Amino acid sequence: MSAIVDKLNATIGALRNRHFRWLWVGRLSSGVTVEMGTVVQGWLVYRLTGSAFALGWVASGWSVATLALSLYGGVISDRIEKRTLLIWSRAGMLVNSLAIAVLIMSDLLQVWHLAANSLLNGVFFAFLMPAQESIVAELVDRRTILNAVSLNAVGFGLMGIVAASTAGALIELIGPAGVYLIMAAVYGGAIYATYKLPRIAPTGDGDASVWSDLWNIVGYLKQRPAILAVLLLGLTRVFFVMPHRTLMPAFSQDNLGFDGAGLGLLMSILAVGAMLGSLIMSSLGDIQGKGRLLLLSGAASGLFLILFVSIPWMSGVFISLAAVGLFNSIYMVLSQALLLNHVDPVYRGRIISISLAEWGLMPLGTLPSGAIADLVGVPPVIIVLGLIVIVVYMGAMAYPVVRRLP
Residue 397 in 3-state DSSP? Predict the structure, then answer.
């Protein structure tokens, strides 16, 4: 019995920190609003336009703003008090949600309002995320960082699964305006949780120019090749691992013969695997050999991508897809923990913002993958992507700069 209690204590170790608990509540709220917003925005755009293309360009505003401003957001998060930045970013998102709710209730909503909403949320997100991620290392001790990052992933994933399924039902029950009002209320709860965090003095140089702060990162990364390598390896995941999510509808319909419910099942299996990976990492404590495990989990995700599109048995397809989610989650947690552990506090916000900006480059992987899949089918594309991933991560094992990270 004591062993079970000890394991449970290890799994939720960071939650014993009162300040981290408040931060975690704010993260749960973020998971709810992101997923609910994605569902209700897509529903409204399609109802207004009937265009799949409109779904893409409205949602792209978020990616464009995040990519353009993440580095600047990282500079700001190093310069000013992070608690204040989190509060104002979430307040902006709250106002955004209220504005859309009012437009719907006034019967004035047009698709450009939703595009503007997406763009503005991307702007706020570009300032929110560097502060939200980097403040973790300032609230918990170094030995608890891996557990804290894992618990963040667990909470975000769990709330994402619940909110995505709930949002659709709420649209039918109370209408899209009601959903946006609920999102605004959730943002209000997140602001309250953030208000309970301690004030932490900024670490950056407020007198230096923004361009100077950005340029200093170049010099810092030259001196810290391990950090640079972790960031570059993250691009491999963005370009070659993540396209499988975009190609999932085509593979589901054309290769598995699934309808919409079947696609939902596949995405749920992926999410469950990711949740399991986060739970595993949260239970391990401050393990050694994080660099080696990072590379192995990256290679494993490539291997199971290949198996996912190659195995002829449905049970094997499901197991392989769950494994993709599991190893992707393990990789994400380890990457974030390594950055928080090994980056000097004065640069932490800017380095985290670089890792976040990488996600804005995802279309560089998804667009060519989709175009080639139209010509040759999804399985050959996924197999090639998986092979590239395996080669990159196993090749990186030959270099000690990442492999030996503790």
Answer: coil
- Residue 229 forms part of a structural domain: yes
Q: What pTM was computed for the model?
A: 0.76
Give the least confident one: 177-186, 239-248, 290-299, 385-394.
Answer: 239-248
Which is nearest to 298 in space by CA: 210, 390, 381, 225? Answer: 390
Are 376 and 242 found together in one domain?
yes
Rounded to whole angstroms, the Cα distance separating 72 from 131 reads: 12
Q: What is the DSSP letter of 237?
A: I
Query: Distance (Å, rounded) from C-alpha 300 to C-alpha 294?
Result: 10
Specify if 5 maps to a domain.
no
The answer as to whether 3 is a domain residue is: no
User: Could you report the per-residue pLDDT of 207-219, keeping only the tens digit for each?
Assistant: 566 677 777 788 8
- Dig out the tokens for 388 from the structure: 């590239």
The tens digit of pLDDT for each residue in 382-397 reads 999 999 999 999 999 9
What are 101-104's contacts with CB under 8 Å, separation 24+? 101/177, 101/178, 101/180, 101/181, 101/184, 104/44, 104/175, 104/176, 104/177, 104/180
Q: Which residue has the tokens 């190893």?
A: 327
For 101, the token pair is: 């709710």
Dihedral pair phi/psi, residue 91, rounded to 5°: -65, -40
